[in-house]
Each structure stands twice: as C-alpha cells, then as structure tokens.
Specification:
This protein is α/β, with parallel strands linked by helices. The protein has helices at residues 15-26, 84-94, 130-133, and strands at residues 7-11, 29-38, 41-49, 54-58, 76-80, 99-104, 107-113, 119-125. The strands form two sheets. The protein has a four-stranded mixed β-sheet, with helices on one face. The chain has a four-stranded mixed β-sheet with strand order 5-8-7-6, with no helix packed on it. Strand 2 (29-38) and strand 3 form a beta hairpin. The longest helix has 12 residues, at 15-26.
C-alpha cells in the first residue's frame, strides 16, 4: 500500500458554513459529525469528503481556545478534481473569486479561499502519467 493523505483538520467558528461550501464546490458529502471528548476538553467536529479522503473541521475547544490566528495563513492544501470547468461553475454560482496559476502542459490550477479565508489549490491533471503530472520544470 502507498501512503497518502487521508485528511487535514483545522479550526473554524462555523461548521455548517464550511459543510455547505465544501459540499457544493467539490460535490462531497458529510461523512460524519460529532462531539470529541478528551480528558478535560471537547470540541464539535465534521468530516466532509469521499470514502477515501476528507477535510476535517473542528470548533475551538469548549471553554478555552480562541480562533484568532488559527487559520492556515499563507499555506494551502491541494484538491485534485476531475473537471476544473465544473468546479469553476460552482464557484461562480457562489460568487467566489479564483485565480489561475501558471501555464503547464499537464495540469491546470486555480487558487481560491474558503469562507474562513484559507487558501485551496484546485488541480486538474491533463495526463495520467506521473512523470508528466509531476514535472516541475515545466511550470509557467
């Protein structure tokens, strides 16, 4: 088995808003929702994605943690999609801005911000060959 990223998690103040956004833009489903209790702290959580991978969001710890400064900041995470034009149509329907990146013969990329301001790189590969998909010398 090859290792892969199953999920990422970060903190939000509004779980429902992000469930709506990620479900609409990427046509994902809500995989699970609950309350995590560990030692003296707890938080609410959701998992949104597919059977194989998902994005996890949680609230700040109840009675403690603040969300100021918890965004991913200038970092981002990447999501591969089978049809970039379809995703752009969904973004347009929400009034979300996006920007295109580079001119690569084997992949198309756009960058967006989710409702919490976190950056997402959306990638559509134009080749099934890893050597072409992962050729960084061709980035424009």
């Amino acid at each position: 088995m090859t290792s892969y990223v199953e999920h990422i998690q970060y903190i939000t103040g509004d779980l429902d808003r992000l469930v709506g956004f990620y479900s609409h833009v990427f046509d994902w489903r809500l995989r699970g929702r609950g309350l995590e209790k560990a030692a003296d702290r707890s938080y609410d959580w959701v998992h949104i994605g597919t059977d194989d991978s998902y994005v996890a969001f949680r609230t700040p710890y109840h009675g403690g943690e603040q969300i100021d400064g918890t965004r991913l900041g200038h970092t981002h995470f990447g999501i591969v999609v089978p049809d970039l034009d379809q995703v752009i149509g969904r973004l347009d329907s929400l009034g979300c801005a996006y920007r295109r990146k580079g001119n690569h013969p084997f992949r198309e990329r756009i960058y967006i911000r989710d409702p919490d301001g976190n950056e997402i790189e959306i990638i559509h590969y134009l080749s099934a060959y890893p050597a072409e998909r992962n050729d960084y010398d061709l980035d424009g």
